[in-house]
Amino acid sequence: MAIVNKATPADVKALVDIFYSGFNDEFFEPLFPQSRECREFLEEAYGSWIKGKEGRQEAMVYVVRDEDGKTLSVASYWVIKPGDNGLQGWRSRWPAVPPGMSTEGLEEFFAGMESQHELGMGTKEHIYLEILATQESARRRGYGSMLLDIGKELADGMDYPLYLDAERDSKSLYIKAGYQELTDIAQSSPLSPLMRLRKSEREAEEEI
What we know:
By secondary structure, the chain is of the alpha+beta class. Helices cover 39% and strands 21% of the residues. The protein contains seven helices and seven strands; from the N terminus they run βααββααβαβαββα. It has helices at 12-22, 36-51, 90-93, 103-121, 143-158, 171-176, 199-207; strands at residues 3-6, 58-65, 71-80, 126-134, 162-166, 180-181, 192-196. Helix 5 links the parallel strand 4 (126-134) and strand 5. It is globular. The chain starts with a strand and ends with a helix.
């Protein structure tokens, strides 16, 4: 039976493989090329998120392992707390961009998402699902939903809303998990902004 665990440093190389498996189309490949420099960039990112870093918002990285212990799916969440003044910029979350990767392309990619993120969430506390990916050979087994459930449990325990940016083909998965597309804000990214209300707001709506 597959189980969800917090990621450990031993997972990092597998997480990079999963990332490449999930984000390898004509949109993502120029941003995250399958090169030594980019692989090291992603390894540093995942390693840093798992270990934590002083002065940076908290990352929560979860994985799904199959019955053989193989790591097959990953979700990376960020916890934005009251007083944080919103999500920190991508340069605070990610490592320095190495030669061989497009700083300009990454800036445009992240800036578009961050603009609509700020419009949707402002400075209030929330949890941000930045990455959800599953190894191609392990898809359609419910692993993504398992990782979404962990995020919902985390958010409901803190009474925080959840936010993410979704590709068109994956929006139905998130809507099924209780997210709503934010259609009333200006979309500045090819990815669509979605939010799941905090637990207290959902309960208040149910009482009406």
